[in-house]
Amino acid sequence: MELKQAKQAVLEAARNLLSSNLVARTWGNISCRVGEESFLITPSGKAYEHLSEDQLVLVSLSDLSYSGSIKPSSEKGMHASVYRNKPAVQCVLHTHQEMASLASLLGQSVSVPTAFQDILGTSIPTASYGLPGTKRLHNNVTKVLQATSSSALLMACHGALCFGPSMEASFAIAQALEQACKEAVYVHAPMIKALEGTSSIKLAAAISNTGNLEYGKTLDPTLQQLCAKLLTDKTDCNTILLLISQEVLAVMDMVPRLAAYLDDFAQIAAPSLAVMHQNAPVSKLLGKAKHCDALLMKGVGALCMGNSESEAHAVATLVQKNCKAEVLHLADLRVRHITWLDARLMRYVYKQKYSKLA
Questions:
Q1: Do residues 91 and 167 lie in contact, with contact meaning Cβ atoms separated by under 8 Å?
Q2: CA angle 309, 314, 315 (to 5 degrees)
């Protein structure tokens, strides 16, 4: 693919990934092969809604070198491995789509329904866990790539790689993968299907352009007081959204603490979230919110915080997905959460590095 064509394809794919909920915030990445010796990839930590051509990075396929001050995605090695092992592949999507992410927790290959075998193959393999951006993850992915003929693979506790001869083909693969993984997840945890229904993400409180506090129309006075304190005390919080869903409410009734099952939740939301009561002292709630960007309020929903509405919405999306992961764990105890140490490490790195780039 020519460089100009690759730039257009990557930017269009970035917009489509956001609108299709295949990624949240800066998570996930996109690349296109350029000639025989390089590939174009999205940058590290840049929000897709504001991405421009001059922020895309051309990377050498042989040694991962690049020029300029903008860093390519930390997962560039994973993309390079796809191109090295799959010569026919022209485009790679790394997504955090919901059902594929949940299926990655099962720790096994996912059988593909007949309807999707033409595009995906008969099974989707899962690469063993490795922290994002590490050689361990890249090596685990490479082992799977060398052993599979599938056009997609899962990465444990992380997400999916979808790759094809064009960007359109890669998107079609991602969509088929989501349907195949949905069937696998429903088999393992019928409760996830039973709980699915109407969910809402609405404004709880925000700091307006004039510096005034604005509240959601139906927000309880007690929550108004809490939100006012959060917006005052958390320097990186300008918007708070209230997530209400059957999955979130059910999980708060079943466990005292929501562990991190997925990398994106650990980084963007929290290493874990304690279930809190609305009548708990405000000082205690503020203390819990100091090192996380969500509060689970039993019987109410999840307060999701961010510098902007889009950032808070991304947090809400990840809380919802991670609650489904908890339900999957309760249905199949072989599903394990990320270790506390790994979750804390990812959260620290994200807050110190990536969140400041977005």
A1: yes
A2: 100
pLDDT digits (tens, 9 = 90+) for 203-213: 999 999 899 99
Q: Identify the architecture of domain 194-354 in CATH.
A: 3-Layer(aba) Sandwich (3.40)
pLDDT of residue 48: 79
Sign of CA dihedral 228, 269, 245, 298: negative
Q: Let me know if the fold of 3-188 is the same as that of 194-354.
A: yes
**Assigned fold of 3-188:** L-fuculose-1-phosphate Aldolase (3.40.225)
Phi-psi region of 157 (alpha: psi -120 to 50; beta: other; left: phi over 0): left
Question: Per-residue DSSP letters for 169-187?
Answer: HHHHHHHHHHHHHHHHHHH
Collapse the DSSP code of 40 into the 3-class scheme (helix H, G, I; strand E, B; otherwise coil) and give the result. strand
292 Cβ contact list (under 8 Å, min separation 6): 269, 270, 271, 273
Are 26 and 68 in contact, with CB atoms under 8 Å apart? no
Q: What is the pTM of this model?
A: 0.94
